[in-house]
Write a structure and sequence with these properties.
Mean pLDDT: 86
Distance between the termini: 21 Å
Low-confidence stretches: none
Strand content: 5-15%
Order of helices and strands: HHHHHHHHEHEEHE
Strand order of the largest sheet: 2-3-1-4
Number of domains: 2
Oligomer: single chain
Structural class: alpha+beta
Number of strands: 4
Shape: elongated
Radius of gyration: 24 Å
Amino acid sequence: MKAKLARTAFEYGVITVATLLLVVGVYFFKFPNNFSFGGVTGIAVVLSAMSKASASSYTFIINMALLVLGFLFLGKSFGAKTVYVSVLTSVGLSALEKLFPMSAPLTTEPVLELIFAIFLPALSAAILFNIGASGGGTDIIAMILKKYTSVPIGTALFLVDCVIVISSCFVFDIQTGLFSLTGLLAKSLVIDNVIESINRCKVFLIVCDNPDPICEFIYQDLKRSATVYKAHGAFTHNQKMIIMSVMKRGQAVQLRNFVKRYQPGAFIAIVNSSEIIGKGFRGLN
């Protein structure tokens, strides 16, 4: 029970940090420059330019409306983490609006601010994805579409984002629209790269004569497991043993150095992977 509570507390701590990264990136860099890429906050930027209400206020209203829709259409399948992220994002933006009112961008360098407007929310999204949480907002629409229709979710959401970005060309100016388009295209690439970096592991294939010392090092020192199977050389036809093991990058350096030191004749193949599923790594869910 204590372990479960500790795990839950850790997850929500990580979710809180990730959400605060999103809030900082959106409020200090996205809103002041009228960058309109990115779902709910993008819609809020466009709507705020057409009325007297702030982008933070529109974000709060839209997120709360989407939460209601989520409860109505998704019921119990609607995750608590999604609710937490949506509420914290909305409250965080409203709080920053009160504490740090902004009437102009932080700097006179829109490209620099675009980088932060892309990177901070993208890093947030990658962390949330890695821990099994959702950013709320248009993700809720995606969940509803997935449950009730056969509409390709990714395509539908991308088209909505494109409409928002195109509208910013008319609501603001061409430069702002082009910056927003750049942000839209770059954000998904940054998210994918960050997710891969967070999850990246090393897959070892070690061809050797005596696997026992290497396996013992893997078990005892690295606290990892390994699979050993027999093989033979295609040219020499000599009997060989192959060790397969998966581990984090820091452990990979230790194993590589150990093998080079104690079995210099071993053949080592090291492969990068960001999709390792199983005990000690990510679960199927």
